[in-house]
Amino acid sequence: MPTLELTAENFETTVETEGITFVDWWADWCMPCKAFAPVFEKAAENHPDVRFGKVDTESEQGLAAAAQISAIPTLMAFRDGILVFRQSGALPPKALEEVIEAVEALDMEDVRRQLAEAQAAEAQQA
Hints:
CATH superfamily: Glutaredoxin
Keywords: Disulfide bond, Electron transport, Redox-active center, Transport
Domain Thioredoxin: 1-105
CATH class: Alpha Beta
Radius of gyration: 15 Å
GO molecular function: protein-disulfide reductase activity
Family: Belongs to the thioredoxin family.
CATH topology: Glutaredoxin
Organism: Tessaracoccus lapidicaptus
């Protein structure tokens, strides 16, 4: 599956869709971003059941600010609308494969339980 161009208009609906979405935050002037691009594209080809999207931080500055992107490339993974992975820096192919496998293997009931517990604890502190 080819990578999707994500913008302020389609970002939220794309990452909130059921399933797995990986997002590569990048810019044209960023050499590590350019080095990571073919790795990301190859992963998209190898995993047709996973959505892969790219956000150009130069043309989507508001979206990048809202996502608190302070370094690029930044890779995010969402599963069923929940951010489950975030890391800055280009990953080599093997490391990206390991992240994809780990996200696919997540027990989402456990993730939701942990998230609810953290939100409840935060609400008690407020």
